[in-house]
């Protein structure tokens, strides 16, 4: 780093991890049928594009999934865990009420001393975490950051509610961001609108030694759908404008992997051909904060996304929250 030059952050490496238990729509339909609940592979594929998801074993936590993802990202970056000076984990399914999943991951990585904290912005969590890490690197507060999305969403699914339990999966994705003279992250933008807290929530808490309220995910699917498509287009355009770029400058679009129809709608509004859209929702389901880094890592490792490509990451989710990150890989 030349201290006379502006300081940016760049992606140095990516990694991801999926728990081994792959559950197809047909597997899930059989499980629900045992409780008299009807669903089908056809319905799930047609409405969502999802064919399978991975579920973690009961004893496996978000930090357990984050650990191999983090190690893979460190290896790709050519760094040792001890060189990391910031850990941010985006999760809505933390291992504990506290300490943070980031601190638990830090312990599992065998390092100590660097800042470590969680970000809670549901499915926008990874975009929020990248924005915070980018700002801390640009300001000089950090030089090498592990930014992770990790979820065990299966823990908060009500398997008696077919309108939600078919949509989600578990997994973790990681990025190492490092300080650089050369721009990597070009522009970021975050938003929230708490007027819509009710359309996607897990309205439960731990109190007096018991779980109170409703500890399962509740969603107004159509309400989420309508809000998501509008805000994703708007935030993408705003981030492009901040970076002085046009729609046509995007090589790859990685929206939050919730539903293929929302993703295709967003690509269409940005006039991007469908082959510029990175899709992993078919195999991962919606892994909330893990969905974008899982998709990014899959695309990098398959050779689709290459060094120098311009990539738009877009998150949207409970809160209601949304945001975007435009970066050159
Ligand atoms: N299997 C079979 N039938 C089902 C299922 C299921 N799993 N779930 C619902 N149905 C039935 C409903 O009961 C309803 O039946 P009815 O007409 O007899 O009442 C029918 O299918 C249609 O239900 P809708 O809820 O109207 O279905 P819709 O077309 O809206 O699709 C979906 C539901 C897929 C959730 C859609 O609203 C959607 O994509 N919403 C976006 C929300 C989303 O992706 N959320 C993910 C989390 S949010 C995030 O990550 C940003």
SSE topology sketch:
Layout: E1 8-17, E2 22-24, H1 25-33, H2 41-48, E3 52-54, H3 62-77, E4 86-90, H4 101-109, E5 115-119, H5 125-139, E6 144-152, H6 162-165, E7 170-180, E8 185-192, E9 200-201, E10 204-207, E11 210-213, E12 218-219, H7 221-242, E13 252-255, H8 260-269, H9 281-284, H10 291-301, E14 310-317, E15 321-328
Parallel strand pairs: 4-5, 4-6, 13-14
Antiparallel strand pairs: 1-7, 2-3, 6-7, 8-15, 9-12, 10-11, 14-15
Helix pairs in contact: 3-4, 7-8
The structure holds acetyl coenzyme *A.
Q: How would you characterize this protein structure?
A:
This protein is of the alpha+beta class. It has two domains: 8-182, Peroxisomal Thiolase, Chain A, domain 1, CATH 3.40.47; 186-328, 3-Layer(aba) Sandwich (Peroxisomal Thiolase, Chain A, domain 1). It has helices at 25-33, 41-48, 62-77, 101-109, 125-139, 162-165, 221-242, 260-269, 281-284, 291-301, and strands at 8-17, 22-24, 52-54, 86-90, 115-119, 144-152, 170-180, 185-192, 200-201, 204-207, 210-213, 218-219, 252-255, 310-317, 321-328. The strands form five sheets. A five-stranded mixed beta sheet has the order 1-7-6-4-5, with helices on both faces. Strand 4 (86-90), helix 4 and strand 5 (115-119) form a beta-alpha-beta unit. The longest helix is centred in the C-terminal third of the chain and has 22 residues, at 221-242. The radius of gyration is 19 Å and the shape is globular. The chain starts with 7 loop residues before the first strand and ends with a strand. Bound molecules: acetyl coenzyme *A (ACO). Acetyl coenzyme *A binds at residues 39, 43-44, 47-48, 123, 162-163, 166-167, 200, 219, 221-222, 224-225, 228, 256, 258-259, 286, 316-317.
């Amino acid at each position: 780093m030349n201290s006379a030059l502006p300081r940016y952050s760049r992606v140095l490496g990516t990694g991801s991890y999926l728990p081994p238990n792959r559950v197809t729509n047909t597997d899930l339909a059989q499980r629900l049928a045992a409780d008299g609940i009807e669903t089908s592979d056809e319905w799930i594929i047609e409405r969502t594009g999802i064919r399978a998801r991975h579920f973690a074993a009961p004893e496996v936590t978000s930090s357990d999934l984050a650990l191999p993802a983090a190690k893979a990202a460190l290896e790709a970056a050519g760094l040792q865990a001890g060189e990391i000076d910031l850990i941010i984990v985006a999760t809505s399914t933390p291992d504990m009420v506290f300490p943070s999943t980031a601190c638990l991951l830090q312990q599992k990585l065998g390092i100590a001393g660097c800042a470590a904290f969680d970000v809670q912005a549901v499915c926008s969590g990874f975009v929020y975490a990248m924005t915070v890490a980018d700002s801390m690197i640009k300001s000089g507060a950090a030089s090498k950051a592990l930014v992770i999305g990790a979820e065990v969403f299966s823990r908060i699914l009500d398997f008696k509610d077919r309108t939600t339990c078919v949509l989600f999966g578990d997994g973790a994705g990681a990025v190492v961001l490092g300080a650089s003279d050369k721009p990597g992250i070009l522009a970021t933008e975050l938003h929230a609108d708490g007027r819509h807290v009710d359309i996607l929530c897990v309205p439960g808490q731990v109190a007096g030694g018991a779980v109170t309220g409703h500890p399962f995910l509740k969603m107004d699917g159509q309400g989420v759908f309508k809000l998501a498509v509008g805000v994703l287009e708007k935030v993408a355009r705003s981030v492009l404008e901040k970076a002085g770029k046009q729609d046509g400058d995007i090589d790859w679009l990685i929206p939050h992997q919730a539903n293929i129809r929302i993703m295709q709608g967003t690509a269409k509004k940005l006039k991007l051909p469908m082959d510029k859209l990175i899709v992993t929702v078919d195999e991962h389901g919606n892994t909330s904060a893990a969905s974008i880094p899982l998709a990014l890592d899959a695309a990098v490792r398959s050779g689709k996304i290459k060094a120098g490509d311009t990539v738009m990451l877009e998150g949207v989710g409970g809160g209601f929250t949304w945001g975007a990150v435009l970066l050159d890989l």
